[in-house]
Design goal:
single chain, 263 residues, alpha/beta, Rossmann fold, SIR2/SIRT2 'Small Domain', 33% helix, 13% strand
Length: 263
């Protein structure tokens, strides 16, 4: 441990076997859900927000049918969500994962649509459910980088007309996976490869109920790969965990990093 290494947070004990598993690992795959970003001030998807959008059910806005019925409404909602992400900062858990990669390969597979892992310095190899910051054409799928898709320019109103694809002139859509849509094949393939190559898997802040993503840690456990869970509450993945640590991302992950570096 050097003078610059973090001290373990008081009252948090990481099982020695979990510490050794991470310390000895050459490849760690980290699987994150909404709880990863909660301590950055981002509400989980189903939490009710006050103000402009509290009258709307997020489940009703995150569907292909909602987009078909009112694209301006859906675009405005996702731009509003993106602005909230831009106002947030990576928490200590995000930063700990980035620091953990100094001594080993740490591949992040996330269900989150924010960019907090990237801003903390992590290598995200798979956004399983897409990203708020990757809009694309609704027809040809071409990535869109125009300035009018910048959420910092979105106004606080219930309808904002989406921009137009410069390739085929169709409407640009949010770059997220809606309910009823399949996961992107390339993102799924990258996630599967990362899990299969892992020496250990760290699962952070996910309920483990969203399929097919939740099946990845299960398959790792079935293959004999150790699974370390960080979650304040039991989840659907707890029974597959080699170690289940009852704490949040911003507390538990810095404690893990400190313990690994003490060796």
């Amino acid at each position: 441990m050097t003078d610059h290494d973090p001290a373990p947070p008081p009252g948090i004990e990481i099982p020695s076997a979990a510490v050794e598993a991470v310390r000895d690992a050459e490849w760690v795959t980290v699987f994150t859900g909404a709880g990863m970003s909660a301590e950055s001030g981002l509400a989980t998807f189903r939490d009710t927000d006050t103000g402009l959008w509290e009258q709307y059910d997020p489940m009703a806005l995150a569907t292909p049918q909602a987009w078909h019925d009112d694209p301006a409404l859906v675009w405005a909602w996702y731009q509003w969500r993106a602005r909230k992400v831009l106002a947030a900062q990576p928490n200590a858990g995000h930063r700990a994962l980035a620091d953990l990669a100094a001594d080993r390969a740490v591949m992040v597979v996330t269900q989150n649509v924010d960019d907090l892992h990237e801003r903390a310095g992590s290598d995200v190899i798979s956004h399983l459910h897409g990203s708020l910051f990757a809009p694309r054409c609704s027809h040809c799928g071409h990535p869109y980088h125009g300035t009018d898709a910048d959420p910092t320019d979105a106004v606080e109103q219930l309808r904002v007309e989406p921009p137009t694809c410069p390739i085929c002139l169709s409407t640009v859509r949010p770059g997220v996976v809606w309910f009823g849509e399949p996961l992107p094949a390339d993102q799924w393939s990258s996630a599967e490869k990362a899990f299969a190559a892992s020496d250990v898997v760290i699962v952070v802040g996910t309920s483990g109920i969203v399929r097919p993503a939740a099946g990845l840690p299960e398959r790792a456990a079935d293959a004999g790969i150790g699974v370390i869970e960080f979650n304040p509450e039991p989840s659907a993945l707890t029974r597959y965990a080699t170690h289940s640590i009852r704490t949040s991302a911003a507390v538990g992950l810095p404690a893990l990093l400190a313990a690994v570096r003490q060796g």
